[in-house]
Every structure is written in C-alpha cells, then in structure tokens.
Amino acid sequence: MKTLLWKTVALAGAVLSAQAALSQGVLIVTSPADGAFVGSTTTISFRIDNGVREVTVRAEITAQVGGGATAIETRVTPDSNGDASGSLTWNPSDAFDEGLYDIHVTATEQGNVYNDVDLTVTLDRKKPELTDHTPQNNSFVNGIVTITAEIEELNLDSWRVTVNNQDIPFNTGNTPTISVTWDTSNIEDDGEQEIKFIIKDLAQNQQEITVSVFLDRQSPTVTVLTPRTDQQIPPLSTLGVAFDVADAAHNSVSISGILVEIRLLDGTLVKRVSRLRYGQVNDTTSRWMGRVRLRLPEGVSNFKLVITVVDKAGNPTVIQEVPLQYSRGRGRGR
After folding, report:
1. The pLDDT value given to residue 235
2. Are the beta carbons of 236 and 327 closer than 8 angstroms?
C-alpha cells in the first residue's frame, strides 16, 4: 500500500512538473511599440525566451475600420539557452486603407505554451509632401540665401536641409515650415550647388527633394556695340542700340534685369529705349538690341545712353554711360 501511494505521489509530481514546463515560454515583441506609426514596410521584431524546439510566430493584422486583414508567420529555432529572435515583414498593399490596425502576435511550440502579444498601430503609407520651396530649381543665388519650404504631413517627425550633402547651421527641425539660412561665402567656387530637403514622418516614410541652384558671385559686364561714344544723332531720328551682356551663364541675366535709358547729362530721364530682341550669343553671353526715336528739349545738344544691368543673383554691373550729341544743325532725320 505504501509503495502504491508513493508511486501515485511521484506521478502527480511529474504531471505538475510537465504542466509547469508547458508555461515557461515567453514571447516579447520588441517593435513596433504599441501606438506606433508604421509605413509601407513594417518589420515586426520579436524575441523568444525559454524555447525548446522550433517555434512558429504568427501575426494577425486587422483594420479597425474597413475590414482589411492579413496574417504572416515565420519559424525560429531557440539556441541551447532557449533564446531566439526573428522578424515578420508586413508590406500592406493599396487595399489596406491608412488608419488604425490591431496586431495579434502568437507563438506556438510543441510541448510549450507562450503568452500572446496585442498592440495597435497606425498605418501611414504616404510620404510627406514639400510645397512652395525657395530657391527654385535652376535659379541663381548669391550672398546669404534663405531656404524655405512648406511641408504637408499630419504625422511629421523631422526635416533636414543639406547643401552639397553637407549640414549647414540650424538645418534640422520638426515644424511644418522650413526656414534655414545658407551663407554662400563658405563655398569656394561658383557654379552649380545642390540643396536637399529630407523629410520623415512618424511612420519613417521619407521624402527627399533636390534643388539645383547656380552660385553666381560675378558681376555681369556690358560691351556696347552701338552707338559709339560721342556719335552725333540727328533730331527726330531713330537711334539703334546694341550691346552684349557677359555673365556666369547666358541665361543668368533676365530681360527684367536690364534697363536702357536716354538721359540728359544731369541725369534727367528723357525716355526708355524699347527692346527689339534679346538672345544668346554663346554659353556666357547674350545680346540686347533695341531702338528709340529721339526728341530732346530745346537747347539740349548733349545727352547720354545709360545701361544698367543686374543679374538673377543680384550682382549689378558697372553702369554704362555712352555720351552722345544731338546734331541740330544737320537737319531732321526721318
């Protein structure tokens, strides 16, 4: 009788030990955190403690609104210490609307029992948008440049601005408005420079926008082709004007940056010269051509052609003045 009782107690102890062993496995989801934002590629990382054999880890993902659902799983084998780690990758298609999703993660292993893990995440697949940035692409800059932009993103995490892939002072933030100053004096050579906007949202969707600008610290030069200095101009004649503008590039001086005028010697404005054409001569030079019909006040015999040029980067040329004579004694021109 005592022997039978001892065997019964031993058997009960073995059952309890086996049941205890069944409850030793631990499933820990290390990322994403509960309440996190996730993007187009979401990695569900996990760790297994007290495992014995191959463990199947499964994640069931269900939309709180709209009914979208999927399940993914993988297998890991614990080491001699019973530890294992792994990950599941969720690449939601367009069929999954953005919004809240419940993730239920389970681990199963023959002869072992694990806890479940539940978390809720927000799916955000859309990259941040950048609008209204300055300077514009292919623009010309000089001096202290203010770099600005507006970001369209409800779940903004951070932004960063670089020049030629290098950081500049105070170039990071997390506000919807970007405003950074760039001192171009730190750039050794004029020419093309690259401004890059890097924006991330909370789901780590990243948008990169690159803007190419031309650093131009060179003032344009003007070469007057016609009229010649002290040329005599008959009254009421039509004066033709032509000059070349040379700068960093043939398109670095716009039409609006050129002012051509007839003035008296004391600076009084008589008339602006009308432009006929403005076009490229070579890679760095453009030619301006225009004309004006002259009519000066009585008693005036000397006047001047005044040419003012400012390039797109704000560099002014030395003002060109061509002295001219009004030849009243030669009769009226046609």
Report:
1. 85
2. no
Q: How far apart are CA 307 and CA 305, in angstroms?
A: 7
Q: What confidence score (pLDDT) does residue 105 get? A: 98
Q: Looking at the domain 221-330, which fold is it?
A: Immunoglobulin-like (2.60.40)
Query: What does the angle CA 257 – CA 259 – CA 264 come to, to the nearest 5 degrees?
Result: 160
Query: How would residue 66 be classed by pLDDT, with cut points 50, 70 and 90?
Result: confident
Residue 160's closest CA among 132, 122, 128?
Answer: 128
pLDDT exceeds 80 at position 4:
no
% of the chain at pLDDT higher than 90: 84
Quickly state the pLDDT bin for 9 (edges 50, 70, 90): very low
Instruction: Please write the tens of the pLDDT for every residue from 164-222.
Output: 999 999 999 999 999 999 999 999 999 999 999 999 999 999 999 999 999 999 999 99
Of 69, 50, 67, 51, residue with least CA distance to 59: 69
Cβ atoms of 289 and 242 within 8 Å: the answer is: yes
Number of alpha carbons in the 13 Å side-chain half-sphere of residue 141 = 29
Average pLDDT of 78-105?
Answer: 94
Distance CA 211, CA 136 (A): 7
Q: Residue 17 gets which letter from DSSP?
A: H
Instruction: Provide the CATH number for the domain formed by 129-215 in this structure.
Output: 2.60.40.10
Q: Residue 111: phi, psi to the nearest 5? A: 80, 15
Are residues 122 and 161 in contact, defined by beta-carbon separation less than 8 angstroms? no
Domain boundaries, given as residue ranges, for the chain? 26-123, 129-215, 221-330
Residue among 309, 244, 318 at smallest CA distance from 283: 244
3-state secondary structure (DSSP) of residue 184: helix
Say if CB 106 and CB 114 are below 8 A apart: yes
CATH superfamily, domain at 26-123: Immunoglobulins (2.60.40.10)
Residue 227 binned pLDDT confidence (cut-offs 50, 70, 90): very high
* 91-125 CB burial, b ≥16 within 10 A, e <16: ebeeebebeebebebbbbbeebebeebebebbbbb
Q: Do 26-123 and 129-215 agree at the fold level?
A: yes
